[in-house]
Specification:
The chain is of the alpha+beta class. The protein has two helices and eight strands, in the order ααββββββββ. Bound molecules: 2-acetamido-2-deoxy-beta-D-glucopyranose (NAG). The site of 2-acetamido-2-deoxy-beta-D-glucopyranose has 4 residues, from helix 2.
Length: 141
């Protein structure tokens, strides 16, 4: 009985969801455009777990159709902060700051270092010699 009522209810919902007229579509788009242009928020969060290398930061601000923000996390050998913005033209990374943790990764004779982060687990990296800057390759298979 319950199944029948549920199916009948779903069918009724589909039957009564008539398509919008072009004018209603236009009104809906206009309403959405106004909502988008007046949207505003701002938030941040911060987990300061320096003991377990689990520091996480995030902040974001929206003003109309433009969103800007940043997030920070640890790779186990480097602390990254990524700054971004998003608008009508999509999402873009503006800047990325990296700061080595402690002495940085300790490479063996093969140029490989084993690293570990509380969020990312244990893995190995290799120095990418093709890059001008110090750049590490994650060599998990
Ligand atoms: C409003 O913004 C959303 C994304 O936040 C977008 O998908 C949508 O197309 C926008 N609507 C209008 C009418 O600009």
């Amino acid at each position: 009985m319950f199944k029948f009522v549920l199916v009948a209810g779903l069918l009724a919902t589909v039957a009564f969801a008539a398509p919008l007229t072009p004018e209603e579509e236009e009104d809906k788009r206009e309403m959405e455009r106004i909502q988008n242009e007046s949207a505003q928020y701002s938030f941040d969060s911060n987990i300061d777990d320096g003991i377990n290398d689990g520091t996480l930061r995030r902040e974001e601000t929206r003003d109309g159709t433009k969103v800007t923000g940043s997030y920070s996390y640890s790779d186990g050998y480097v602390h990254r902060t990524v700054f971004y913005e998003a608008d009508e033209n999509g999402y873009r990374v503006i800047k990325e700051d990296t700061k080595e943790i402690g002495e940085g990764p300790q490479f063996n004779a093969d140029g490989q270092a084993d690293v570990e982060g509380s969020l990312i687990g244990k893995y190995s990296i290799k120095l990418d010699k093709d890059m001008e800057d110090k750049h590490y390759k994650d060599i998990r298979s």
